[in-house]
Design brief:
Elements lengths: L1 H17 L3 H35 L3 H20 L18 H26 L1 H28 L4 H12 L2 H14 L4 H24 L5 H27 L1
Helix pairs in contact: 1-4, 1-5, 1-6, 2-5, 2-8, 2-9, 3-8, 4-5, 4-6, 4-7, 4-8, 5-6, 5-9
């Protein structure tokens, strides 16, 4: 259910969003990106990394090596323009292959998200909800950007929606496969979480944070800070729920 909400649900919401007025779009994108940044930062630093370390036993250094390797991996991937996120309808991706690149990158991203969701639910139900919420929060602005790019590259709205929907479906088999495989090899969970945390932090700091810096001024800055902290507090409350249950 959460893998469907994190991919297909986000694409449907993004498509509806693209049919709103330009003023509403600009206002909501900034808010969504700020909130998503907060959830990703908190999920990675307060949930994924501590859980990975606690489950690793004496292999803490190995877990952090996977985390570091994950950061480098996503940097290289983005450098190769295989995985590139754009969260603003005004953003431009140059080159004739922009459409296929976006779709391939999105499919890969959604596949990873499916594995992340599966691993988190194997640890704890509320932990799974927290991580899934972070996935959903950053998927919505990402899908908005992806759809906007495809339409800008002369895809019809119908084709852009259908192609993005196909790439979004990758989350579902990944979650199902990940659930059964990770259940069989539970020792891999700390390392999966470490790489996933690297993914969350990389997206938050490399892709989302620069978007927030594009709007200056006290009003915009305060709204971004409030929404960023709202995302962090959301994660903290869910993690607190986990300890109560």
């Amino acid at each position: 259910m959460f893998s469907v909400l994190g991919s297909i649900g986000a694409i449907v919401l993004a498509f509806i969003f693209l049919n709103l007025t330009k003023n509403i779009q600009k206002s909501l994108v900034s808010s969504l990106v700020a909130y998503a940044t907060g959830t990703l930062l908190a999920a990675a630093s307060l949930g994924m990394i501590p859980t990975a370390i606690s489950k690793a036993g004496d292999a803490i250094q190995i877990v952090m090596t996977y985390f570091l390797g994950g950061l480098i991996f996503f940097f290289i991937l983005e450098k190769l323009v295989i995985w590139r996120h754009c969260h603003d309808a005004e953003c431009v991706v140059t080159g004739e292959a922009a459409g296929p690149v976006i779709l391939i990158g999105d499919a890969f991203h959604n596949f990873v998200d499916g594995i992340v969701i599966a691993a988190s639910f194997l640890i704890n139900f509320t932990f799974g909800i927290a991580i899934s919420l972070s996935v959903i929060a950053h998927e919505i602005p990402q899908e908005i950007g992806d759809l906007a790019i495809l339409i800008d590259k002369n895809y019809s709205k119908k084709k852009a929606f259908l192609y993005n929907l196909l790439s979004g479906v990758a989350t579902i088999p990944a979650a199902i496969i990940g659930y059964f495989l990770l259940d069989l090899i539970s020792l891999a969970i700390p390392y999966v979480l470490a790489i996933s945390a690297a993914s969350f932090l990389y997206i938050a700091l490399s892709d989302l944070t620069p978007e927030l810096h594009q709007k200056l001024g006290l009003k915009h800055s305060l709204r971004q800070l409030i929404l960023l902290f709202a995302g962090i507090i959301t994660m903290i409350l869910i993690f607190m729920l986990k300890s109560i249950l």
